[in-house]
Amino acid sequence: MPDVTFHELVINVGDIKQWAYCPRVVFYHRFYGGAGVPTAKMEMGHAAQLKIRELITRRSLRPFGLETANRKFEVWMRDEILGIQGRADLIVSNSSQLAVIDFKLTGGGVGRNLRLQVGAYTLLAERDLGIPADRAFIFRIPDNEILPVDVNAALRAEVIQAAADIRAMIMEERLPPPTPNRLRCVDCEFANLCGDIW
Ligand code: SF4
Q1: By alpha-carbon position, which residue is closest to atom 3 of ligand 1?
Q2: Is residue 75, in this structure, part of any structural domain at all?
Q3: Rounded CA gap, 114 and 104, in Å?
Q4: Does position 190 have pLDDT exceeding 70, yes or no?
């Protein structure tokens, strides 16, 4: 049992993203510790990060719905009321609106896990800056595509619910159900702990 109350437990945005992929991964990371495989972003070299920054810095912000705005990279945010914390890749903002931009280093579409991730960062950024947002964006690096995500009431509610579900899982130390998508299990670092699914 953690040494904090339910409401003091602050959930990482990365866990909210992972929860949508497979809730058990969040459980194993929490209770079995550092067996994690580095993510593509973690493995990305400093030079590559600088290249992405340069690309974004030169790029017009019009596709993000903002003509003129400030760009802030790797913004750490924590909000005790939301009970969420995390580091957004990029936030662009002016005095009346903001948009969170997440860098996707692989191809493919925007799954529920990514939508929850940018939704969570948007909730944090709105509270941090006191500026509203109605959309976030995935910047897909391999083909330079910008994919918008509506940060609507349904997505906001999903983020809050996912954080509450993770909090309850941690407090109760309860193993969640496995992902219904068993293809995800094939290369999972925790496959040996999930004996019941094979
Ligand atoms: S093996 Fe499958 S169910 Fe188990 S943690 Fe991995 S992805 Fe989830």
Answers
A1: 178
A2: yes
A3: 9
A4: yes
Does ligand 1 have an atom closer than 6 angstroms to the CB of 26?
Answer: no
pLDDT digits (tens, 9 = 90+) for 17-33: 999 999 999 999 999 87
- Tokens 């973690």: give the residue: 42
The CATH number of residue 102's host domain is 3.90.320.10
Provide the b/e sequence for 137-150 (b: ≥16 CB within 10 Å): bbbbbeeeeeebbe
Q: 43 alpha carbon to ligand 1 midpoint, in Å?
A: 22
* Mean pLDDT for the chain overall: 88
* pLDDT above 50 for 36: no
Quick one: which atom of ligand 1 is closest to the CA of 189?
6
106 found inside a domain: yes
Class of residue 173 by CB neighbours under 10 A (exposed 0-12, middle 13-18, buried 19+): exposed
Per-residue pLDDT at 47: 65
Q: Is 93 left (phi over 0), alpha (psi -120 to 50) or beta?
A: beta
Compute, in angstroms, the gap from residue 20 CA to the centroid of ligand 1: 12
Give the pLDDT confidence score for residue 6 in this predicted structure. Answer: 72
Q: Report the nearest atom of ligand 1 relative to the CA of 197.
A: 3
Supply the range of the domain harboring residue 69.
6-197
If one residue of 32, 197, 198 were mutated to test the ligand 1 pocket, choosing by the most ligand atoms within 8 A of its CB, it would be 197
CB 53 near ligand 1, within 6 Å: no
Closest ligand 1 atom to Cα of 185: 2
pLDDT at 37 over 70: no
| 195: pLDDT strictly greater than 90 | no
Q: Is residue 165 situated within a structural domain?
A: yes
Kindly state whether residue 1 falls inside one of the protein's structural domains.
Answer: no
